Amino acid sequence: MSTIGIVVVALLGLIAAGSAIGKLTKATPAVEGLYAAGIKESQVPGLAVLELLGAVGLVVGIWLPWLGVLSAVCLTLYFLGALVVQVRAKTGPAGFVPPLVITLIGIAATLLELGR
């Protein structure tokens, strides 16, 4: 994989892991937006586990390329879903810009994973 590919995939993995840790520790900025968008407190740990699995899949994908592709696709869909939830909840730019940017990073990571 190219250097840019490694950087983009690592960035997506770090974002997913950081987001998951924020959810698991119930860090105010991480969960405040979720609650504002209508996500229930009981759903937050499950969302965090999905993000952690995606991040781990990207790392293991270094040795198993198919898993890297699958993880990049799944994380992209996850953050696309987050974007849709934020837009539907009308949380404004503060709510939908972060998942939009992460979705774009996910698309780039997916394309780079597919190209190796």
Index terms:
116 residues, mainly alpha, 5 helices, globular
Describe this structure in words.
The chain has helices at residues 3-24, 28-36, 44-60, 65-88, 93-114. With 116 residues, the chain is an all-alpha fold. It has one domain (3-114). Helix 3 (44-60) packs antiparallel against helix 4 (65-88). The model has no long low-confidence stretch (mean pLDDT 94).
Compute the average pLDDT. Answer: 94
Unreliable runs:
none
Strand coverage percent = under 5%
Structurally, the number of domains stands at: 1
Shape: globular
**CA(first)-CA(last) distance:** 6 Å
- Structural category is mainly alpha
**What Rg, in angstroms, do the CA atoms define?**
14 Å
Task: Offer a concise description of the structure.
By secondary structure, the protein is mostly helical. It has five helices and no strands.
Mind sketching the topology for me?
Layout: H1 3-24, H2 28-36, H3 44-60, H4 65-88, H5 93-114
Helix pairs in contact: 1-3, 1-5, 3-4, 4-5
